[in-house]
Write a structure and sequence with these properties.
Shape: globular
Strand content: 15-25%
Oligomer: single chain
Strand order of the largest sheet: 2-1-3-4
Structural class: alpha+beta
Order of helices and strands: HEHEHEEH
Largest sheet: 4 strands, mixed
Low-confidence stretches: 1-24
Helix content: 10-25%
Distance between the termini: 21 Å
Number of strands: 4
Length: 139
């Protein structure tokens, strides 16, 4: 299910010239998490996500983070189960392009079931093509 997020810019920001090295399209990789030190999986992915943002941010993708404990409406809006701290959807990383959801980890099956994943650097880089390599389409 695709969701749109607002990427509206003020008139003054749309008149600005593009910075050198910027690309067409608005791509954001967003970590939806519970910002709790006792939630080990969220804390571990938060560290990984921070490192990836330093390594890959500012180029073809921007990075953001949403604390679902504080911004609860986002969990409903993006269909992220936060009813239990053991939810397979905590944390969730979603790639947005021009405000539209393109891909997420962990993935949701059409039935609504969650595919449990282990977050590691190589996997996240590959799934979201952070290294600039295009994924091959599977047939």
């Amino acid at each position: 299910m695709a969701h749109n997020i607002s990427t509206k810019k003020s008139r003054s920001s749309t008149k600005k010239k593009k910075k050198k090295g910027s690309v067409d399209g608005d791509r954001w990789l967003v970590l939806f998490t519970l910002d709790r030190t006792w939630h080990t999986r969220c804390s571990d992915v938060d560290i990984l996500f921070s490192r990836l943002s330093v390594e890959f941010g500012g180029g073809h993708v921007q990075f953001g983070k949403v604390d679902l404990g504080r911004w609860t409406k986002f969990s409903e809006r993006f269909n992220i189960d936060t009813s239990s701290t053991t939810s397979a959807q905590l944390p969730t990383i979603i790639l947005f392009e021009n405000g539209e959801e393109i891909q997420r980890l962990p993935p949701l099956r059409p039935t609504g079931e969650v595919t449990r994943v282990h977050f590691d650097r190589e996997g996240v880089v590959k799934v979201f093509s952070l290294d600039g390599k295009k994924k091959k389409k599977e047939h």
